[in-house]
Structures are given as structure tokens and as C-alpha cells.
Design brief:
Radius of gyration: 23 Å
Strand content: 5-15%
CATH topology of the largest domain: Cytochrome p450
Structural class: alpha+beta
Order of helices and strands: EEHHEEHEHHHEHHHHHHHHEEEEHHEEEE
Strand order of the largest sheet: 3-4-10-7-5
Number of helices: 16
């Protein structure tokens, strides 16, 4: 419940019709000249969850700026879909462009459509089916490195305390480079990507939220981010030299290189744009997947029945002594449901938009220049859609559920023209990587009784998630293989 000595009552102001449509009410908890800043001090995520259970749209006063918080899935879909031409993405672009350049996250209109057309084939069913063996291979190698003894053979009597956020970043960066790009790099570089490159998203959030007039001061953090961005672009620029093209030439690097090659006709994108897109996909895919996996381990450790269900499913697939099935995800429905529930509880918290003109959405009037926050976090925790919305419950999803299903109440990958192009890749690798590792070891909190706090950012990440990994008796990855043939069409 939102509480405090506010100048208004705790109820939402009632939206009332006017000549131009419904006025948008002010959120409760307004404190005179301070606006809603005292409310936000209690936590952005708790505020978003509270707003998600209230009015469809409210005004949130942050200093001198009014934010329009949209917590209704149907209105969100209208803004992102049918009315998308009336809304811009200036804060998203401002946040990402210093890191990703002119990649998909920073592009609009014609250029955005052209880049999506170039990349789209890499995320089709057959190209993704071909990388399933690689995902399992990378997960197997990761588990082997984790439990390698100091001399020879796996150290299967070891318990390891792991920084899960960092470890899953290492794994997801390796998967992205090897599976999505069909390239490779050394483990030292993978570790650098996890420790230095992925945290660049913190600077993205700061730029998104900072006032337009705020200067970029050369603080130590700012300088470190610039250096990391420069090194990241160097790392990515080296990937084409290590490229191992996929059969059919439908991997990301092949598609980008082909579009930039004048020998194949007029170049559709520049060489610089190739690096921009590789940086964009590496940063976005690595962090999003890592956070999903980290939260999944956290929730499974807190819910033994769900954990046992995932382990049983993983054992049947990875520890059976048989070759892995071709249509692997069809054999991991419980793991997929666990991933779906993680994506519901810990999504990208908000999607910023700005109104390019006065526009009516669902009868609500947004003035020109309005700063709109689509409250994905609140929509995903709306008790009207999800009973006991704050509870991790994979069984709320049907057995054939998929994270790619389109629903106004479920927006883990956004929707519309700017829906995450890598959604099919994410929906594939998260369940497979989770099951592959669950077949090998079990994770428990290393600090008993410590509360793990969700921290808002470009993604919703854990503030400090230290867990102890213990090998499971009789478990092992690597003896099985996946058929190299894609599923039959």
C-alpha cells in the first residue's frame, strides 16, 4: 500500500471525461513541491507494482517532470502497436547510442526496418534449431570448467560459492558469441565481457533517466564506461576474423557481412553498422539471458517442488545415456514454464516512450511531449491477471506455454515494431541452459537468511546473489549428443 503524509487522499484521482477524452489522474502519494519523490524513495519497483494494481494510467511527478505511467496491458499494446507512429523513443535512444551506436536499439523508422530485415533470418526456426547442439556444448564446457579440479579430472567433491549474476553473464556471453554469431573468443575475453562490458547497461539507465540538459561529467565511472565501450567495440570488431559460418549462411555475422559487402550488390549497411549491431546483440542478449538464469536459480532454490520437477526433466533429457532429442524444447515443458515465470516476475521494468503529438489512447489524452513509462513490471504483477502475483508459480502456465506467446498481460520482449528481435533466441537458450546445468549441479544460497533484493535497471537484476553450487550425485553432461539435423519441416 502506498502510504505517507500526502496532500491528496490515498485513492486515485478519478479520471473524468472532458472535451478531448479522459483526463489522466495523479497517482496517490503526492507531496506538494516534492511531487512523488518521497514515494519513489521507498523503491521504484514496489511503486511500479503498486501502480500496476491501480488505475490504468496515472501521472507521476518527478521533480519538475511529469511521467505518465501506463499500467494497463491493452493500452500498452496500443501505444507499442497501432499508435506507435505517435510515440518516439528518445530516452531509449539517448541511453543506448553511446554504447551500441546505430544498432537496432537506437534506430527508428526506415533504418530500423532495414536492419531488422537483414537480421531476421538468423532468428528463424531452422537457424535456431541448428544452434541447439552448440548451446548444449557451451553449457557442458562451462559446467566442466566450474568443477575442474586443480590437477586432473572433475573435482566432483567440491562445493563452490558463485556470484550467480557474474557467472551467468560469463555463460550467456559465451553462448551469444559462439551460437548466435558463430564465432569464438578466449575465456579471458569472455570474463572481461562479463565483468566490464555487461555493466555498461548501468550507464544506459542513468542516461535514460537524467534530464535532457544534464551534462556528461567526466567522473571516474564515466571515464571507465567510455574505456569499456571502446574495448568492447574492439573485441566485437575482431569476431568476423574468427567466424565459422553456419550452413546456409543464416547466422548473424554472415547476414551482416553480406549486407555490408559491395561485391554482392549495393551495400545495405556500412561496416561501422556491422559492429554496432554486433555490440547491440551481444550486450542485450548476454545481460538479459544472464539475469533470467540467475533469477531462475534463486527461485528454484526457494521452491523445492519446482526445483525437483526441473531436475527430473533435466535428468530424463541430459542424464539418460541416450542422444539428446532433436526437438529439445518439447522435452522441457516444466523448465520452460519456470523460465516464463521468471520473465513475468523480473522483466524489463519500464519501456519509455515520448508523445510526438497530442494523442488519445484508450480514451486517455496524452499531450504532445508527454514522457510515457509503460509499466511492464506492474502489468506482470496485476492481480487481475495473476492470482498471488508476487509468488513464483510456474504451474500458473499451461503445459504448452511459450515465452513467445503474445498477450497484453505478458510483455517480456515488448511488442510491436520494436519487439525484441532476439526473443526466439532467448526463449530457446534460457530453458536449455538452465536444464543442462540443473542436470549437473544444485544451487543453494551461500548466505542463509539473506534477502536478495531486485534492483531496477535496463533489466531487473539481483543486487547480490551468492549461491553454493554442489554436484548432483550421478549427474553428468557431455556423454550425450544432439543430432546435427534440424527438426523436420
Amino acid at each position: 500500500m502506498i502510504t505517507g503524509q500526502a496532500e491528496t487522499s490515498e485513492a486515485y484521482d478519478v479520471a473524468h471525461p472532458s472535451e478531448g477524452g479522459l483526463d489522466i489522474p495523479r497517482a496517490p502519494g503526492h507531496w506538494g513541491p516534492l511531487g512523488h519523490l518521497p514515494l519513489l524513495r521507498h523503491g521504484l519497483l514496489s511503486t511500479l507494482a503498486e501502480l500496476g494494481a491501480g488505475a490504468p494510467v496515472v501521472k507521476l511527478q518527478v521533480g519538475a517532470v511529469t511521467k505518465y505511467v501506463v499500467s494497463d496491458g491493452d493500452l500498452a499494446q496500443e501505444i507499442l502497436g497501432d499508435k506507435r507512429q505517435a510515440f518516439g523513443r528518445k530516452r531509449v535512444i539517448r541511453g543506448f547510442r553511446p554504447v551500441t551506436g546505430d544498432g537496432l536499439l537506437s534506430l527508428e523508422s526506415r533504418e530500423h526496418r532495414e536492419h531488422r530485415r537483414i537480421l531476421a533470418p538468423a532468428f528463424g526456426r531452422l537457424p535456431l534449431a541448428r544452434i541447439t547442439p552448440l548451446i548444449c556444448e557451451v553449457a557442458s564446457e562451462y559446467a566442466g570448467r566450474m568443477f575442474s579440479g586443480p590437477s586432473s579430472g572433475p573435482g566432483l567433491d567440491l562445493d563452490l560459492d558463485l556470484d550467480l549474476d557474474l557467472e551467468m553473464l560469463r555463460l550467456s556471453a559465451d553462448i551469444t558469441v559462439r551460437c548466435l554469431f558463430r564465432s569464438h573468443t578466449d575465456q579471458e575475453t569472455v570474463s572481461w565481457l562479463a565483468t566490464k562490458a555487461a555493466p555498461l547497461s548501468k550507464g544506459v539507465l542513468l542516461r535514460m533517466l537524467a534530464p535532457a540538459w544534464s551534462p556528461a561529467l567526466p567522473t571516474p565511472e564515466f571515464v571507465a564506461r567510455r574505456r569499456a565501450t571502446h574495448r568492447l567495440r574492439q573485441v566485437v570488431a575482431d569476431l568476423p576474423a574468427r567466424h565459422m559460418p553456419a550452413e546456409g549462411g543464416d547466422d548473424v555475422l554472415s547476414l551482416l557481412e553480406g549486407a555490408a559487402c559491395p561485391a554482392r550488390g549495393p551495400a545495405r549497411i556500412s561496416r561501422a553498422a556491422v559492429v554496432d549491431e554486433l555490440v547491440t546483440l551481444l550486450v542485450a542478449a548476454s545481460e538479459a539471458t544472464a539475469v533470467t538464469l540467475a533469477w531462475a536459480w534463486h527461485e528454484l532454490a526457494r521452491h523445492p517442488r519446482a526445483e525437483q520437477a526441473v531436475q527430473a526433466e533435466a535428468d530424463a533429457v541430459f542424464n539418460s545415456g541416450r542422444s539428446l532429442p532433436e526437438k529439445l524444447l518439447e522435452h522441457l515443458p516444466l523448465t520452460t514454464k519456470a523460465v516464463m515465470e521468471v520473465l513475468r516476475l523480473y522483466p524489463v521494468p519500464v519501456l519509455p516512450r515520448n508523445a510526438l503529438r497530442e494523442v488519445s489512447v484508450g480514451g486517455f489524452r496524452f499531450p504532445r511531449g508527454a514522457e510515457v513509462l509503460i509499466n511492464v513490471y506492474g502489468i506482470h504483477r496485476d492481480p487481475g491477471h495473476y492470482p498471488q502475483p508476487h509468488t513464483f508459480d510456474p504451474d500458473r502456465w499451461p503445459s504448452d506455454a511459450t515465452p513467445l506467446a503474445l498477450s497484453s498481460a505478458y510483455l517480456p520482449f515488448s511488442t510491436g515494431a520494436h519487439r525484441c528481435i532476439g526473443a526466439p533466441f532467448a526463449a530457446l537458450i534460457a530453458p536449455i541452459a538452465l536444464a543442462a546445468l540443473a542436470a549437473r549441479f544444485q544451487l543453494r544460497p551461500a548466505e542463509a537468511g539473506r534477502r536478495v533484493r531486485a534492483v531496477p535497471g535496463v533489466v531487473t537484476r539481483p543486487n547480490r546473489l551468492i549461491m553454493t553450487a554442489s554436484p548432483r550425485v550421478g549427474a553428468g553432461i557431455g556423454a550425450q549428443r544432439v543430432s546435427e539435423q534440424p527438426p523436420a519441416t
